[in-house]
Specification:
Layout: H1 3-9, H2 12-19, E1 32-37, E2 44-52, E3 55-64, H3 67-77, H4 85-101, H5 126-146
Antiparallel strand pairs: 1-2, 2-3
Helix pairs in contact: 2-3, 3-5, 4-5
Amino acid sequence: MPDADLVKLYSGRILELAADMPMAAPLDDPQVTVRKRSPLCGSTVTVSLDVADGRIVRYAQDVKACALGQASASISGRQMIGRDLAEVAAIRDSLRAMLKESGPVPEAPWDGYEVLTPAREFKNRHASIMLALDATVAALEETERAGLTVS
């Protein structure tokens, strides 16, 4: 990867997002915890959450990823409280389409992903960018299968 491409890919805004990770404090006794790993780069994201009436009421993420994966988790983590499986699956699918099919950038309340549009050209980074959303969808699917709620 040429130096100019690296500079474009790792913009100042991506580094700012990566350094400002929301929802990083671990949860005491979460209903579910899911860890996802990108086999290509070794990035991992662990998501813990609680749901009530099918919506996230508590959320935590432990992100061990490149700056792109961290930036993606930073963007999504700010929006997780109050979301249900359909909403999180839709943003995951929208982000995947943005990266893999040059689809549109996700809109509010999921705005911010435009900083990751340069990553479209770097397929080896896509899995890391998707990890937080993939882990959250898997966690919500697990809570749905188990019929979990917060009392």
